[in-house]
Amino acid sequence: MSRSCPCNPSATYASCCKPLHDDCAVASSAEALMRSRYSAYVLGLGDYLLATWHPDTRPDALALDDTPGLRWLGLDVKRHTDAGDGTAVVEFVARYKVGGASAERLHELSRFERVDGRWFYLAGDFPG
């Protein structure tokens, strides 16, 4: 049985984010890249996260959250705006919980830039 993709439970991982994670396929949009990055966080794929981070803002290293009991619950993309000039914004809410605690929400406005035909995560802001 094929497992569902963390970014979209109605799609299989093999048909959704796996080609981006394994084959370095080019994301078709900033939203597709953001979804693959969410899935990479869920799956602990730090190398992929660094590889898709814009060179101007990429950290030297990335320590993924290894909080005991951390569980990602889902992703809701609120909007995707492609400015048409090689930049885009994706607003999303990711839900998670730690152990038996109540679910939390991570609300982010992520900025992306296209460089040589590939989308890269530039930075994010946390509204509210």
UniProtKB/TrEMBL annotation:
SUPFAM superfamilies: NTF2-like (SSF54427)
Positions of the YchJ-like middle NTF2-like domain: 29-124
Similarity annotation: Belongs to the UPF0225 family.
Pfam families found in the cross-reference section: YchJ_M-like (PF17775)
InterPro entries xrefs: NTF2-like_dom_sf, YchJ-like, YchJ-like_M
Coiled-coil intervals, chain numbering: none
Signal peptide: none
Gene3D superfamilies from the UniProt entry: 3.10.450.50
Classification lineage: Bacteria, Pseudomonadati, Pseudomonadota, Gammaproteobacteria, Lysobacterales
Protein name (Swiss-Prot/TrEMBL): UPF0225 protein SAMN02745674_00469
